[in-house]
Amino acid sequence: MLDQIIATKKEEVRLLEMPAPVAVKRVSLKQALLESTFDLGLIAEIKQASPSKGLLVETLDVKGIARSYQMAGASAISVLTDYPYFKGKKEYIKQVKDAVDLPVLRKDFIIDAKQVEESYRLGADAILLIAGVMEYNQLRELYEQAYELGLECLVEVHDEEEAHTLLQYIKPEIVGVNNRNLKTFQTSINQTELILPSLSKEAVIVSESGIRTKDDLIYLKNLGVHGVLMGETLMKATDRSKAIESLFANERTVR
Ligand SMILES: O=P(O)(O)OC[C@@H](O)[C@@H](O)c1c[nH]c2ccccc12
C-alpha cells in the first residue's frame, strides 16, 4: 500500500501546478506543543477517511471541526491534504488558518521540493516528513528547505533503525513516532516506548496513531513524550470538544 501511495505522489508531483501564495500569519508548532494547556500537547487531526478504516465521517465541516478543536484546547491542527487515500484537500489548510489561530500541520506524503514550496504557498505552518519513504539525503534537503522558508517539520519514524539512521543526517527539532506499522496498518502505542531511547533528548517528541483512551495518554505522558497526534478517535466523536475535554482536562499523571 505504501509503495502504491508513493507512486501516486510521484505522479501528483509531476503534474503539480504551483498555487499562488496565500497570506497567513505563521505560528510555531514546536512552541505550541511546549506551551500546551494540557499536560500533553495535542495535535488534533482533520481527516475524512483513511486507507485502513475507510470513510470516518460522511461530511466534513473543516472550519467547524477546527474551531471545536481549538475551543477544547488543542495545541495544533493536522490537516490531511491527500485526496486519493484520505479524501483530503489542499484548500483545507487555508480554511483552517482562517478559522483558528493554531499552527497547521500539512499531512501528506511529501517527497519532493515542489511540495515543500507548495505547502508554504498553501499557508501551512509545518509539514510532515516521513523517514523510510525517501532517501535520507533527500529528507535532509527537504527539511532544510522547509526551515529556510519558515516552515517547521514533524519528522516521522517507525522503528529504532529509522530513528538511528535519521540522527546521522539531521537533528530534527520535532520527531513523530508513528505507532502504526505502515506495512500492516496495525497500531501499538508500545512502539513509542520502544523507540524513545533512540531519539535525541533535545527533540520535542510526538506519539502518533492508535491513541484512544485516557489510559493511553497517561501511559504516554509518563514515558516523557511532549505531545500526541490523534485522528480517528476525535473524528468519530459525536461531540469533538467534549471528547478532548474528557480525555485531557484535569489530567493528572503519576510519575
Ligand atoms: O487516526 P489515528 O490512529 O489517531 O492516527 C492519526 C495519525 O497518526 C495518522 O493519520 C498518520 C500518521 N502518520 C501519517 C502519515 C500519513 C498519513 C496519515 C498519518
Architecture overview:
- This protein has 255 residues and is α/β, with parallel strands linked by helices.
- It has one domain: Aldolase class I (TIM Barrel, Alpha-Beta Barrel).
- It is 40% helix and 17% strand.
- The chain contains 11 helices and 10 strands.
- An 8-stranded parallel barrel has the order 1-4-5-6-7-8-9-10, surrounded by 6 helices.
- Helix 3 crosses helix 4, helix 3 packs parallel to helix 11 and helix 5 packs parallel to helix 6.
- The radius of gyration is 17 Å and the shape is globular.
- The termini are far apart.
- The model has no long low-confidence stretch (mean pLDDT 96).
- Bound molecules: indole-3-glycerol phosphate.
- Indole-3-glycerol phosphate binds next to strand 10 and helix 10.
- The site of indole-3-glycerol phosphate has 15 residues, from strand 10 and helix 10.
